[in-house]
Design brief:
Elements (H helix, E strand, L loop, with lengths): L2 H7 L4 E2 L22 H10 L6 E6 L3 H9 L3 E6 L2 H16 L3 H8 L16 H6 L14 H12 L3 E5 L12 H16 L2 E8 L1 H5 L17 H14 L6 E8 L10 E7 H5 L5
Helix pairs in contact: 2-3, 3-7, 4-5
């Protein structure tokens, strides 16, 4: 039995190195502050999808499910380092399996999501917050496009959605070699089941890793990270995922609407090869 199969059976994230963080702030459900470019990015992903068994790999929130629905992904790997994000996915899985429609899912998941610490959201009501996705055109929960929810639900029902504890900026010389282990599992899926890596979503993580203070208020320098070593690690780890045709979805550039006291990011899609070219990103 593979490592992620054992973790899935135990209802735990597949641990690829280190321990998850337990910050004093909750995890994400709906993707926040990445609106600019999102509609065009998801429309492009939907129109260019190929009838093949493609894997989606990404960090963060429901944007991963937006992408999986757009691409018709055959497997999904949801990565994070925040314990509270794993608690969110643990609540989402049974709610998706039980609910046969987007609205039923919202009703089922809202009361089961962890509340301590508070979810990261622009609302005081969880049901209202997630319910907004029912009318958002690009969402996997859009009621006008029920095939998206059906597809995502089929992945959860088929146990084809895997949760990984994986630090995007893992040092090149990390002792457990987590990204090498991940690429070995992806190669195994390709060889034995015909699934190939198709899309990778990195949100605004590269931007945040360059800041003195991280996502969870942590001092980046206390982790022994500086801008140069972090960028080297990020590009090295993404380079291990490099394969023909892999698309990268990134929101690391500030949007035109961004302000110092209200940062916003622009969503873009490009080939992973293009992103890894010197001077790009």
């Amino acid at each position: 039995m593979t490592e992620y199969a054992m973790a899935r059976r135990a209802k735990l994230p597949w641990l690829l190195g280190g321990r998850p963080l337990r910050p004093d702030r909750g995890g994400y459900t709906v993707t926040m502050r990445e609106d600019e470019g999102t509609a065009a990015a998801l429309d492009g992903l939907r129109m260019s999808r190929c009838p093949r068994s493609g894997i989606h790999l990404g960090w963060g929130s429901f944007r991963n499910l937006d992408i999986a629905a757009a691409r018709g992904s055959s497997r999904v790997f949801l990565c994070d380092i925040n314990l509270h994000q794993f608690r969110i996915w643990r609540a989402v899985r049974p709610a998706v399996i039980a609910a046969t429609s987007p609205a039923a899912f919202v009703d089922a998941v809202a009361p089961t999501l962890p509340q301590h610490p508070r979810l990261r959201m622009f609302s005081t009501d969880v049901r209202e917050w997630i319910g907004q996705e029912l009318s958002r055109r690009e969402s996997w929960l859009h009621e006008g496009s029920p095939e998206r929810y059906r597809h995502v639900r089929s992945l959860f029902c088929a146990r084809a959605v895997h949760v990984l504890q994986l630090d995007f900026a893992t040092a090149v010389d990390a002792p457990h070699r987590p990204f090498q282990r991940l690429t070995a599992q992806l190669a195994n899926l390709n060889e034995h089941e015909g699934h190939t890596l198709d899309t990778v979503y990195i949100s605004n993580i590269p931007f945040m890793l360059q800041q003195p203070v991280g996502f969870f208020g942590e001092d980046q320098s206390a982790k022994g990270r500086d801008a140069d070593s972090t960028q080297q690690a990020v590009r090295h780890n993404l380079g291990l995922l490099r394969a023909p045709g892999v698309l990268l979805i990134t929101a690391e550039q500030l949007a035109s609407t961004s302000r110092d006291n209200d940062l916003q990011w622009r969503t873009r899609v490009m080939s992973l090869d293009q992103y890894l070219e010197p001077g790009s990103g």
